[in-house]
């Protein structure tokens, strides 16, 4: 099990979070209230972050390093994306209330700030405005990723089409 460390310096981390897409439009005061609930975790190169089909536990925000997203089809791995700093993983599974659709593996030493699922769900009970902003921002990111996936699929179809 990974060691999730507390984030000690709220003043230092809040401005960084404002640059992360899922925190767009969230006031400084709300971010400062959220920071104590966030944790920091590090993964070494090629370390498994989560597996396809596993239940989500956190939203992972990539602060340093890269992550490969891999989907297994009939036990064959296909790398879909490689994401870097400022991107999130695990968010679609949490708001979709479903297991992870992909496997996530670190590429190089990778540092995350994580929002535990339990905290995310507590925000729904305690701060509806913050919850709505987070869900809206996550939906935007998921939509962008879906558009990229659609584009990849169309490129594959175009490349492999057969004349009739």
TrEMBL record:
Residues annotated as domain Cyclic nucleotide-binding: 22-124
Listed name of the protein: Transcriptional regulator, Crp/Fnr family
Origin superkingdom: Bacteria
Keyword hit for Cytoplasm: no
Pfam families: cNMP_binding
Alphabetic keyword roster: Plasmid
CDD domains in UniProt: CAP_ED
Organism, as annotated: Ilyobacter polytropus (strain ATCC 51220 / DSM 2926 / LMG 16218 / CuHBu1)
